[in-house]
Amino acid sequence: MKKLWYKYSFAIILVVLSILASMILVISNGKSVEEKYMSVTINEGETLWDLCKDYADKHALSETEFVSWVEEINDINGNVLLVGDKIYIPVELNDSNLTELASK
After folding, report:
1. Which end of the chain is less congested by CB atoms within 10 angstroms, N or C?
2. Cβ of 91: how many Cβ atoms within 10 Å?
3. What do you get for the CA distance between the two ends of the chain, in Å?
4. Tens digit of pLDDT for each residue in 53-96?
5. Which of 30, 38, 32 is nearest to 94 (CA)?
6. Residues whose CB is less than 8 angstroms from the CB of residue 46 and which lie 6 or more positions away in sequence, other chains included
7. What's 10's DSSP letter?
8. Angstrom distance (rounded) from CA 23 to CA 82
9. H or E, element range at 37
């Protein structure tokens, strides 16, 4: 065991430090959905397709991708939206143009 340590100690230390650095980076950059993306409250008559069109200039997804993302992240079926539901949409919070409301 000592021979192994003396022969590969530099490599072992390098691997351990790399793993620790990776874990620190993941933890420090791993924001939750609530911290990273904008939330909107559903108003009467609104659909996910409407939200996609309203925020089209703030995301780079197609309409289908937008709806699929919202359904997956919020664990919902787009056909069953209730007035007052709070959902997250793929518009990042660091966007400086977030003063627009979800409904017109």
Report:
1. N
2. 22
3. 71
4. 999 999 899 999 999 999 998 988 877 788 999 999 999 887 44
5. 38
6. 81, 102, 103
7. H
8. 39
9. strand 37-41
